[in-house]
Amino acid sequence: MSTIKPFVIVAALAAIPVSAEAQHEAGRDIVETAVAAGSFKTLAAALEAGGLVDALRGDGPFTMFAPNDEAFAKLPEGTLASLLAPENKSKLVEILKFHVVPGRISAVDALEVGKGATLQGSELEFGLRKGQLFVSGRRVIENDIKATNGVIHVIDAVLIPEPKREPYKSLSPRGFLELAVAKGAPLFNAGNREACVAIYELAIRAVLDFDPALVSDETRSALQEALEKAEARRDAARKAWILRRGINIAWRELSRNPRATNDSEVALTSKQSDGEPVNLFTFDRDGDAWFSVNDNVMGGVSRGGFSVSPTGTAIFSGALSRENNGGFSTIRSPARDLGLEGFDGVLLTVRGDGRSYRFSALKTDRRWETRTWQTSFETEPGEWTEVRIPFEDLSLRIMGRWIRGAKGIRPADIRSFSIGIADKNEEPFRLEVAAIRAYRESK
Known about the structure:
Blueprint: H1 6-13, H2 30-37, H3 41-49, H4 53-56, E1 62-67, H5 69-73, H6 79-84, H7 89-97, E2 100-102, H8 107-113, E3 115-117, E4 123-129, E5 132-135, E6 138-147, E7 150-155, H9 173-189, H10 193-208, H11 217-231, H12 236-255, H13 258-261, E8 278-281, E9 291-294, E10 303-308, E11 314-319, E12 329-332, E13 345-351, E14 356-362, E15 371-378, E16 384-390, E17 395-398, E18 401-402, E19 416-421, E20 428-439
């Protein structure tokens, strides 16, 4: 509790501008009040993009420290456009919630309490400087604008919360290898091969130090062999390739050991146990090579293929042809134990061309495999989007035909994925894939 006396606060606040609407009950909620003021167009657009309009029109009460349009204009060029992009919605919501404190807090109340916890979770600090109310260093230029479900104070700049520091998360053996690839592959692709080698080597040595119950002799042998072979090479690129192959072999071996993939078994916390998606494919240069299965297996002449871009994304591109009863193209991953038992679906990070694509799960990677569990997804032209595909939405197709009433595929049985197109459009197609991740639904 502040030691400033109430009568001193009231006298100091006399110098702070108070809007005419603050003198009476406006009969509007916080959102309606901001819109009616006419100087919060950017804030209104941000609330809409963040999906917070309905929440702030609820009973509340809420106290909003509202940046006006001029405040948003002070942000560095491109910042606002970036925040309003769909892929940055979570960051936008964090910032907007940082401007809202539960309860109805007047300017006098703010100075008395000194601080307030926001909907975002962090605190705002209130203070007085030369007769002006400040909130976390930003000046309040208009205060106590009343609304039916709270009060608005106008501020001259956008408040940006400090990034939340995530608690340290220990990793399982497979987690170390996944992290090493996630950090090392981009460095390799950017030409910093020595740094990539160092990361791969550190991860391998860390896994070799784990309890033998978690890391089998086969896994240790593969990793130790990779270290020895890499040490005999002088070229950093060759070293990185050798170490990565050893990591790939070890990763597959570790995937067969539940205790080596589930950190809860070793009193640790991992991405798999805290609900965060787990990378299955990230498409760096040394990643597993997907392969094409086009309609030429049935006499068609469509063409489509798989490649990896310089930035480490997968490119599925080509052109369909309806000649010889053709009209489809696919790429498919090699079969392996993906360790999907207990997961609910996959997240695809893709940039497409506005066309519809198919996603399939298979039990094998045989080129002539006729049984696939499939669904379709749409893309936005030139836009990165995240596609959520629950396994329960996959339906069985045999030789391209839907099988009514057929059972779905068990996640534990999935060993290969396929991405395809068959929309009868003979214009060239192009789909870029940054990652495929597995997720669990929150319980």
